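Hi there, hope your week has been kind to you so far. Would you mind checking whether the C-alpha cells look sensible for this chain? I owe you a coffee for this, so here goes:
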Amino acid sequence: MSDNTIVSGNNNELYEQIRNILLTSRQKAYSAVNEAMVQAYWLIGKTIVEDEQNGHNRAEYGKETLQFLSAKLTEEFGKGFSVRTLQQLKKFYIVYPNTNALRSQLNWTHYRNLIKVKSDEARSWYEEETIKSQWSSRQLERQISALYYERLLSSREKAPVIEEAEQKLSKVTPEEFIRDPYVLEFLKVKEYPSLRESELEQALIDHLQEFLLELGRGFCFVARQKLMRFDDDDFYLDLVFYHSVLKCYILIDLKIGKLTHQDVGQMDSYIRMFDALQKNEDDNPTLGIILCSEPNETIAKYSILNDSKQLFASKYIYNIPTVEELQDYINDQRRIFEEGEGNQ
C-alpha cells in the first residue's frame, strides 16, 4: 500500500468526521429555529386573542385589525402574514392555550394541520403518531384527510385500540395496527370491473412508499409473489411484510370482488404454511390480511375470520370517504362484529 493511499484514506476519514459535525450542528440549529418560530407564532396568536377579548367588536376586529396587522407585518417582515395566516395563529393559541403542551419535534406546518382536527382525542393521537412515525407535515396532512384515526377506531376490537390511542398502553396487539378500510387514493386508478389483481399488486409496488404510509407504523416490505413450496405444490404470496413492533410477518392477499370462503381458507393455509416453513423461532405468529374490494357479512360472521387472532379481512377503496360514509361503514362493521360475538 502506497503512502498516498494511506494519506487519502486518512483524509477521507477526517472529512467524514467534519461532515458529521456540520450535519449535526445544522440539524440542531434547524430544530432550535423551528422551536423558536412555533413559540413566536403561539405568542402572536395569544396576543391577538387577548387584544380581541379586551372589549373589541369581533366582527370589526376580523375585518379591520387583522388586515392592518397583515399589511404592516408583510411590509416589514415579508410574506407569511396574510389575514388567513393570522387567523390560523389565533386558532393555534385557542386550540393550544398552554405553551407547555407544544412539542419540540413538531414544526409550524405540523401544527397548522393539527388545528384543523376538531376532536381533542384524535388530535392528541395524531401528535403522538407523527412523532413516533416521524411523519412529515405532508404525510400528516394526508393521514388526517384520509381519516386515519377514525379508521383506526373501526378495527375489530375497538376498546384496546381506543385505550392505546388515549393511554399509550405498552402492550401491543395486531388490531391496533390493522385498518379497515384502507384508502388507496394515491393509485389514481378507477374501479374498472376488468382490473386484475396482478395489476393492483403492481400499482401498489409502484407506489410502495405511499402504501407503507397507509399501512402505518412498523410495516417493512419483504417480498412480492413469495414462493412457498410444500410437498410437490408451489404457492405464491402476493405481498409479504414484517412488522417491527409486532415482531411478526404479515401476509397480504389481494382480492378484487366479494370476499369468499375460498379466500379465507386459502389465507388460513398460507399462514399455517408460512409459520411452519419461514417463521423464525423468536418471531410472533404470522398474520394474514385479505384486502378485498367488497366485504362479505356472512363470511365475516360465520367463518374462521370471526374468531381468528391471526386472520383479518379489510376493505380497500380508491377514494377518500366523507366523514358520513366512513361513519356508516364503521357502524356496519360494529354491528357485524357485535352480532358475531353474540353467536359465540
Remarks:
- The first strand starts at residue 182 and ends at 183.
- The chain has a mean pLDDT of 79.
